[in-house]
Design goal:
Blueprint: H1 3-18, E1 23-27, H2 33-41, E2 46-49, H3 52-61, E3 67-70, H4 79-82, E4 88-92, H5 95-107, E5 112-119, E6 129-130, H6 131-141, E7 147-154, H7 162-182, E8 187-193, H8 200-205, E9 210-213, H9 215-218
Parallel strand pairs: 1-2, 1-9, 2-3, 3-4, 4-5, 5-6, 5-7, 7-8
The chain binds pyridoxal-5'-phosphate.
Pyridoxal-5'-phosphate binds near residues 29 and 215.
């Protein structure tokens, strides 16, 4: 059995032990098509990419029944390349981006699923909307016709202890519920996307139902690939 498949099985097993209703997004950024195909052939369909050009290349070369998750920072001028190809954009954090996604989705006569990326640890991450601004952004986005808010996404700082992460996760979940209650007409609280290779179990234990796991499945990334 290939290394990737056994690592993947290991992650799936650990997830299912905690909660078998979690979507595993296999983060394939910087990894070749062949690696993705190994999991595809086993029936896995949810893959995450963070760079537009790389995503487009993979999209063009791979089967069309893959569910693509765009998880990286998305520049407004690149939105037009991903609309109609991605199933879920995790990283929506500004009105400008929301407007652009709505505009190109309308042009193509479709509805794009998005998550609002929230930044609760403002000191290091530059992306994600702040707690204070998140209510207004969700309210604004929920009134647009060609996007559908499916939930929220969080990327913690890299240097947090398990206790700090746990507190952060709980804060994130309660803020997400709070925002949803205040916008309950147009928002589908289906996904809370948090948890990566080092903390996906902790994340699920604390309310995540969508984890984004890269290196624990595909191995360490070569950034000069
Ligand atoms: C790269 C990336 C991941 C996966 O990271 P690993 O630590 O390799 O699991 C998850 N989420 C986002 C937003 C990423 O950019």
């Amino acid at each position: 059995m290939s290394d990737i498949i056994s690592k993947y099985n290991n992650v799936v097993e650990k997830i299912n032990k905690i909660n078998d209703n979690v979507t595993l997004v296999a983060v394939s950024k910087y990894k070749p098509i062949e690696d993705i195909l190994k999991l595809y052939e086993m029936g896995h369909r949810d893959f995450g990419e963070s760079r537009v050009q790389e995503f487009i290349n993979k999209y063009e070369s791979l089967p069309k029944d893959i569910n693509w998750h765009f998880i990286g920072h998305l520049q407004t001028n690149k939105v037009k390349y991903v609309i109609g190809k991605v199933n879920l954009i995790h990283s929506v954090d500004s009105k400008k981006l929301v407007d652009e996604i709505n505009k190109y989705s309308a042009k193509k006569n479709l509805i794009t699923n998005i998550l609002i990326q929230i930044n609760l640890s403002n000191d290091i991450n530059k992306y994600g909307i702040s707690r204070e601004e998140s209510f207004e952004l969700v309210n604004y986005a929920s009134k647009l016709n060609n996007i559908k808010i499916m939930g929220f996404m969080l990327i913690p700082r890299y240097d947090m202890s398990n206790d700090e992460l746990k507190a952060l996760f709980n804060d994130f979940v309660s803020l997400s519920l709070d925002i949803t209650v205040k916008n309950n007409d147009n928002i589908y609280m289906k996904y809370l996307s948090f948890g990566m290779s080092d903390d996906y179990e902790l994340a699920i234990l604390n309310g995540s139902n969508m984890v984004r796991v890269g290196s624990k499945i595909f191995g360490a990334r070569e950034y000069n690939y």
